Amino acid sequence: MSLIKNPLIIALDVDTVEEAVALVDRLAPYAGAFKVGMQLYNSAGPEAVHRIREKGAPVFVDLKLHDIPNTVAGAVRVLTRHGASILNVHAAGGRIMMQEAVTGCAG
Fold first, then answer.
1. Is 64 a catalytic residue?
2. For the chain, domain boundaries
3. What is the pTM of this model?
């Protein structure tokens, strides 16, 4: 079963949580999920994910994780605890890093 019923993911490439929430309120009927990328995450941090999840929308956290395996596993663990439904890792990090990312989802 898919977490996302509609394949349309809307990028929230804005500077503030308030701007993001306004977009979510306006566009939720049309979206399957909302993307929190580096711009919003670096501005508002996990609060952005929490506020969007409060609206009942799935969140794609697009931070392009690429680091040593243990660090990526920890980041995935924290991001999923914050409510990320989808996130991404760079395959260039290698098989072990990607496996650790999967392990982080379970933690």
1. yes
2. 9-106
3. 0.92
- Of 5, 35, 55, 64, which residue is the catalytic one? 64
1-30 pLDDT per residue, tens: 356 778 999 999 999 999 999 999 999 999
Fold topology of 9-106: TIM Barrel (3.20.20)
Range list of β-strands (E), the chain: 9-11, 33-36, 59-65, 86-89
Distances (CA, A) of 74 to 54, 57, 78, 80, 97: 24, 24, 6, 10, 11
Provide DSSP, 15-28: S-HHHHHHHHHHHG
Token digits for 20?
């993001």
